[in-house]
Design goal:
5-stranded parallel sheet, Methyltransferase, Methionine Synthase (B12-binding Domains), Chain A, domain 1, 60% helix, alpha/beta, binds cobalamin
Length: 368
């Protein structure tokens, strides 16, 4: 902040947060722009506006959706407004001259990853800190990323992922980039609050947020030795048991059989509407995908954390979390020959049981 006391700066940011929140709740892009630009006109630091106003509000939007206060459409509207405000800001706040830039950073989301906004915020912060930035946006297929890096030779790649389901793809992207001698900094919620999955997958660095990522890149990252191609099992020796590969390969069949089993076991399901059926199929499919991801990383916390998160989402919609248990029981039957998978399913069921013994407010039992 220029010429502002900390208290004035805090007040300016607080007003901007309040104004932006009201604006996105009203789906009013003009009001959102006014709230953000008023803060900049008052002398607020652009980086603080990006991270302490826009990113903050975006996380509030996520919470509002999770707690069933925002519909999916309201969340989409808020995200779209934020994307346009960030773009408008980028053209309004000049970056330091790039001749002085010591690094060129390619910012990209892992293939299959739609959460481009966190990566965009990172890209803008890096630009404001004087890095030259090449922003590639959402879901960049690894072969295209590599071809692009051959042509552009950046100093580092910043790989973003928000969804843990993308970790296996992130792993191949990390090893492919490193194999051409370019260091990878990984970030975004998928890599864990403490960056454990970034370390597990062999990223050269990890940062929890855009501010620390900028500091890290300014200090520089050592270049990995080019040509050394690692296979997944080199980093993750547990993959030799093939359980991840087999569960992934039979994913569709597993989801189909589990849904058929649920229909047999839960007579109430026969009366489900088309929309309720779709939601249930989506939930089962997510369970199988997170199970596979936990097998890939050999980290039960990924699976139990996902079940806890799904249970919160269901309970916010008056659906008791125990509706998830029959699906886990059916998967145990389907996957009875896979010891590591059975262990994960056991831990998943324990997580749901523990929630069930908590004092809770089960709703009327609307189906998932
Ligand atoms: C907006 C949004 C979407 C939008 C994304 C649009 C876009 N253009 O980005 C859309 C609608 C596409 C979407 C889709 C989905 N989403 Co969504 N989404 C969100 C939401 C609400 C906000 C994400 C966001 O922008 N966060 C704000 C920023 C600021 O997040 P941030 O992580 O703090 O970012 C900072 C750091 O991570 C870091 N950083 C980020 N990238 C990088 C990279 C590097 C290298 C470094 C160093 C640092 C770094 O810097 C950032 C700034 O400081 C979140 C909720 C939330 N609380 O985040 C859910 C959320 C991420 N989504 C979720 C889900 C489940 C989904 C879907 C599966 C839903 C569905 N059923 O289809 C799909 C998956 C799509 C896919 N294949 O990727 C869940 C994930 C839950 C879980 N267990 O992992 C969340 C958490 C929702 C929730 N409240 O529970 N989503």
């Amino acid at each position: 902040m220029t010429d502002m006391t900390t208290a004035q700066a805090d007040g300016t940011l607080e007003r901007a947060r309040e104004g932006l929140w009201q604006a996105v709740c009203a789906r009013d892009e003009d009001a959102a722009a006014r709230a953000v630009f008023a803060a900049l006109d008052d002398g607020a630091d652009a980086e603080a506006v990006l991270l302490d106003v826009i990113a903050h509000t975006q996380r509030e939007v996520g919470r509002a959706w999770a707690e069933n206060r925002f519909s999916v459409a309201q969340e989409h509207s808020a995200t779209a407004i934020h994307e346009r405000i960030i773009a408008a800001m980028a053209h309004r706040v000049p970056a330091p001259p790039t001749e002085a830039a010591t690094t060129t950073v390619t910012v990209a989301c892992v293939d299959g990853e739609w959460h481009a906004l966190p990566a965009r915020l990172l890209a803008e912060v890096l630009r404001l800190r004087g890095h030259r930035v090449d922003f590639l946006g959402a879901q960049v297929p690894t072969p295209h990323l590599i071809a692009h890096l051959h042509a552009t030779a950046p100093t580092a790649v910043a790989l973003s992922s928000s969804l843990p389901l993308r970790l296996p793809t992130a792993h191949s992207a990390i090893t492919a980039v490193q194999a051409i001698g370019i260091p990878v900094v990984a970030g975004g919620a998928a890599f864990g609050v403490d960056g454990r999955y970034a370390r597990l997958l062999g990223a050269d660095a990890w940062a929890p947020d855009a501010r620390s990522a900028a500091g890290l890149l300014a200090r520089g990252l050592p270049r990995p030795a080019a040509g050394a191609v690692r296979q997944s099992v080199d980093d993750l020796p547990h993959l030799v048991d093939q359980e991840y590969t087999l569960v992934t390969r039979t994913r569709r069949q597993l989801v189909r059989n589990t849904l058929a089993g649920l229909e047999e076991r839960l007579p109430a399901m026969r009366a489900y509407s088309e929309a309720q059926r779709e939601r249930t199929a989506e939930d089962v499919s997510h369970i199988v995908e997170f199970l596979a991801c936990a097998l890939y990383t050999d980290d039960a916390g990924l699976f139990t954390g996902f079940l806890d998160w799904t249970a919160d989402i269901l309970e916010a919609r008056q659906v008791p979390a125990r509706v998830l248990d029959p699906a886990l029981v059916l998967l145990q039957k389907e996957l009875k020959d896979f010891p590591r998978t059975l262990g994960l399913l056991d831990q998943g069921r324990d997580t749901l049981r523990r929630r069930d013994t908590r004092p809770s407010v089960p709703g009327p039992g609307a189906p998932a």
